[in-house]
């Protein structure tokens, strides 16, 4: 953040506000961790604050302090709309385009109050009054820590806030293994542990609460994996029938796409998941090295994200989507080396 942005935020927070904090649709650990940490921080400063999520999120994220106060726009629509109408300041976290909040987009676009964006994805749109945008950062949670530091207030970070922020950093860095993890990321994580985040307990709560259905679904996903050695690529498909057969719950496929990258020589991985309710195939892409899945997703699947982690969707059938994906790889053969 530059000096002017910091001063603008300080001025906004110097007065009583009715603040909304909003993450993207299908919020992940970074989205929930960052919004709850900021919620705690603002409430501890005496502000009225509310987190509204566009839709539900995985059970393994619902242990964080403050989770019970989050409003779900799908389930609590009337109350959520009332909060949007009454808001005097809106923070948007872990996304940079209002199209990422699904059905919340229209009421947010109608709002005339200041917006503050905190996000680490590429190519931000310009809807926010204050934009703290940095694609080089590991996570939005690391940025929220920086945001509090810019305000000169890191002494206000409580154990509850530290746990939320640590969760988002841990999940968005793949437990600190992705290339976006820097020395500063580790320094921030260390500060959060010193402020009360219990790293081993957080890891247990996020990663060690599997159901038998999820592990059996993982087995199906790995059995479905297709390896294209000529393009150093691996992809997984999961049909709606396969999800239903293993009593799929939201979040059960989290991390499945990364298994392709554990294969020696593979630098590009994808997963295609059928969602019959929405009539789409949901897609996640991962890569290592210089191959930009952000560019690939934007060019072909109406998505985007980061250089090494991105998402998209397809209106084709599951089989047609996989075939189309394979047909594109020849055009990228020089980059997939």
TrEMBL record:
UniProt GO MF annotations: 3'(2'),5'-bisphosphate nucleotidase activity
Boundaries of every DHHA1 domain copy: 253-321
Domain DDH: 18-169
Keywords assigned by UniProt, alphabetized: Hydrolase
EC number(s) from the headed UniProt entry: 3.1.3.7
EC class (word): hydrolase
PANTHER family: BIFUNCTIONAL OLIGORIBONUCLEASE AND PAP PHOSPHATASE NRNA (PTHR47618:SF1)
The name this protein goes by in its record: Bifunctional oligoribonuclease/PAP phosphatase NrnA
Native species: Pricia mediterranea
């Amino acid at each position: 953040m530059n000096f002017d942005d910091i001063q603008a935020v300080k001025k906004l927070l110097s007065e009583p506000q009715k603040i909304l904090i909003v993450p993207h649709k299908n919020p992940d650990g970074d989205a929930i961790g960052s919004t709850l940490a900021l919620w705690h921080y603002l409430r501890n400063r005496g502000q009225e604050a509310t987190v509204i999520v566009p839709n539900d999120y995985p059970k393994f994220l619902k242990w964080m302090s403050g989770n019970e106060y989050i409003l779900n726009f799908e389930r609590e629509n009337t109350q959520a709309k009332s909060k949007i109408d009454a808001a005097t300041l809106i923070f948007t976290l872990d996304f940079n385009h209002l199209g990422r909040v699904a059905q919340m987009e229209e009421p947010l676009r109608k709002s005339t109050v200041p917006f503050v964006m905190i996000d680490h994805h590429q190519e931000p749109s310009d809807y926010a009054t204050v934009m703290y945008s940095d694609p080089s950062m590991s996570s939005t949670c690391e940025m929220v820590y920086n945001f509090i530091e810019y305000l000169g207030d890191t002494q206000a970070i409580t154990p509850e806030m530290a746990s939320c922020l640590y969760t988002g950093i841990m999940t968005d860095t793949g437990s600190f293994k992705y290339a976006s993890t820097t020395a500063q990321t580790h320094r921030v994580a260390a500060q959060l542990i010193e402020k009360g985040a219990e790293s081993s307990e957080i890891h247990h709560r996020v990663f060690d609460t599997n159901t038998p259905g999820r592990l059996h679904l993982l087995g199906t996903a790995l059995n479905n994996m297709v390896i294209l050695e000529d393009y150093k690529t691996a992809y997984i498909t999961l049909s709606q029938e396969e999800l239903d057969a293993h009593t799929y719950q939201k979040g059960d496929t989290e991390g499945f796409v990364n298994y392709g990258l554990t294969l020696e020589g593979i630098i590009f991985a994808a997963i295609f998941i059928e969602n019959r309710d929405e009539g789409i195939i949901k897609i996640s892409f991962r890569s290592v090295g210089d191959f930009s899945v952000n560019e690939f997703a934007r060019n072909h699947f109406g998505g985007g994200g980061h250089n090494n982690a991105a998402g998209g969707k397809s209106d084709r059938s599951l089989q047609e989507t996989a075939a189309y994906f394979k047909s594109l790889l020849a055009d990228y053969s020089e980059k997939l080396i």
